[in-house]
Design goal:
Bound molecules: FE2/S2 (inorganic) cluster, fe (ii) ion
Pfam families: Rieske (PF00355), VanA_C (PF19112)
CATH topology of the largest domain: Naphthalene 1,2-dioxygenase Alpha Subunit, Chain A, domain 1
GO molecular function, one term: monooxygenase activity
Structural class: alpha+beta
CATH superfamily of the largest domain: Naphthalene 1,2-dioxygenase Alpha Subunit, Chain A, domain 1
Protein name: Vanillate O-demethylase monooxygenase subunit
Strand content: 25-35%
Organism: Micromonospora matsumotoense
Keywords: 2Fe-2S, Iron, Iron-sulfur, Metal-binding, Methyltransferase, Monooxygenase, Oxidoreductase, Transferase
CATH class of the largest domain: Alpha Beta
CATH architecture of the largest domain: Alpha-Beta Complex
Oligomer: single chain
Radius of gyration: 22 Å
Largest sheet: 7 strands, antiparallel
């Protein structure tokens, strides 16, 4: 699958970007990220214009980066402000500075034609920066193409088989889904409402519910990068009131940012925000550990699939069934985005 350019992608969790230099490759473009003294996140092309030494292997000096090879020095706009051995700085001595927006605790970078970058089009995940929620998060690199992670997240029936004992129970695979595509806004919705389900350990231990539950999974995928899973957990038979707060239920907002790194590698940024037991560190520790384990189960499976796909003859025919409706819709919207972006490197 090709990449969709002229799009915003998550390059890091906000907490990953500090005064140290951080290397990330997004859509095949090497980036160096850091934070200025004023707290502004910066993303520059990670190749010195002189002899292409990675700036991420270099040294930060104040708000500038001093190339570790011969000392070309760049400011946060990517402009070279010092070259060794001469006064005159060549006019072309600059590296690309990528448009960056930090929002909802995520660091978004624009990959493509910078004139088309509009921060208003970045999809939101407000729970991640809302003090009424407690958030755990992480990032797992995959040795697999990003389309495999999109497929994986769009079809949660795999929870029953791949994540049994954590988040999977028989009802997930057994309950049919409904899929809806908002063509205009380019969003895929997949809903699975389980009205009488076993409570998996992930929710039994974090909510304290004993017995069977009502478990709703409402997915919103905003291609290419942002995936939201609104998870509603309540004792069996408890439904949201027609008006007012749904305060007898537990809500987990599960966020994934799916960022292609190279053709065969992907960043899996994940976060779990909850509106219950927000001050309970032991619940945070448990959910962090559990979701990490679940993510690593997916990583192991997708890395295997990547090797299978890389070795197979062309034109292998997949067989799709009802559970794949959301994933197929996602593929179609992604293909549309790939077709609408501009080609070529950023300026
Ligand atoms: S490669 Fe950076 S200064 Fe020479
Ligand atoms: Fe999974």
């Amino acid at each position: 699958m090709e990449f969709a350019r002229d799009q915003w992608y998550v390059a890091a969790h906000g907490g990953e970007v500090g005064r140290d230099l951080l290397a990330r490759t997004v859509l095949g473009e090497p980036l160096v990220l850091y934070r200025t003294g004023a707290g502004e996140a910066v993303a520059l092309a990670d190749r010195c214009v002189h002899r292409r030494y990675p700036l991420s292997e270099s040294r930060r000096d104040g708000d500038t980066i001093v190339c570790g090879y011969h000392g070309f020095t760049y400011d946060p706009t990517g402009t070279c402000v010092f070259v060794p051995g001469q006064q005159r700085i060549p006019r072309t001595a600059r590296v690309a500075a990528y448009p960056v927006v930090e929002q909802d605790s995520l660091v978004w970078v624009w990959i493509g034609d910078r004139d088309r970058a509009d921060p208003a089009t970045i999809p939101r995940a407000p729970w991640l920066a809302d003090p009424r929620y407690a958030v755990v998060r992480g990032m797992a690199p995959l040795d697999a193409r990003y389309g495999l992670l999109v497929d994986n997240l769009m079809d949660l029936s795999h929870e029953t088989y791949l994540h049994g004992g954590y988040i999977g129970t028989p009802e997930v695979a057994n309950t049919p889904i409904t899929t809806e595509v908002d063509e205009e806004r380019g969003i895929v919705h997949v809903r699975r409402h389980m009205d009488d389900a076993e409570c998996p350990p992930f929710y039994a231990r974090s909510t304290g519910i004993q017995g069977r539950i009502t478990r709703w999974q409402d997915i919103e995928y905003h291609p290419p990068c942002l995936y939201l899973l609104h998870s509603r957990i309540a004792p069996q038979g408890v439904y949201p009131p027609v008006d007012g707060e749904d305060s007898d239920a537990f809500h987990a907002e599960i966020v994934y940012a799916i960022t292609p790194s190279t053709a065969h590698t992907t960043y899996d940024f994940w976060a779990v925000a909850r509106d219950f037991a927000v001050d309970d560190e032991s619940v945070s520790d448990y959910l962090h550990q559990s979701n990490h384990t679940v993510v690593m189960q997916d990583v192991a499976a997708l890395n295997i699939l990547e090797r299978v796909i890389a070795a197979e003859p062309e034109r292998y025919q997949e067989l799709s069934i009802n559970i794949d409706t959301g994933g197929l819709a996602a593929r179609r919207l992604l293909a549309r985005l790939v077709g609408s972006g501009t080609a070529g490197a950023p300026r």
